[in-house]
Input
Amino acid sequence: MSTTLTVKVWRGTKEGAFTRYEVPRQNSQTVLDVVTHIQRFIEPSLSYRFACRVGMCGSCAMTVNGKACWTCRTHVAKVAGDDGELEIAPLSNLPVIKDLATDMSAFFDKWARAKGQFKGTATRADDFAKVAPASVERVAANAGIECIGCGVCYASCDVVSWRPDYLGPAALNRAWTLVNDVRDVQQTERLRAVAGDAGCHACHTQGSCTERCPKQLAPTLAIAGLKRKVAKAAVRGEL
Output
């Protein structure tokens, strides 16, 4: 096994290019460790994001050897191989601000377009809502509520690449959790929002979002659930 890593890192904006660096190989080294080493000791102008370093925030997501992932949880030993080669790029399907940092505005704007905000009627004067933990709706919502908006699924989605207006798996997964929240009062509006050409029916069910989700969520199943909900609402004349 090599004692150094040959790392190609994207520099610049959309029109940038890869720059090659040599980095010492260490035990239990993560890809984020590699990027941090380059920034601290070789290239101080390198731009990237990170925060918690322990897989809680998702801000360190990048494309490593062609696949989107959390770099703080991705160990070099699992992706570099014996030859010690790495290619690190910004997340796909998002505008590049500089180097490895992307603009997440469109990603979160699509959450808003999919009615990804909870809207209820209860006030502070009301008792807490009681939702049975074993109810069908609660179980369905539980399957998707751990999303932290890291963008890995969005960057892995080929449909987003083909159709930039597609809402994407994260926004649709969020919509699915709220569709199953019995306290929410904008269900019809939300189904209308995800029923358009750029909504749930644009999904080709390739499953890349589910395969690469660091939280082991299944946006593919959530989108399938939305398709069923939308179809039933359409038959009832609600859309």
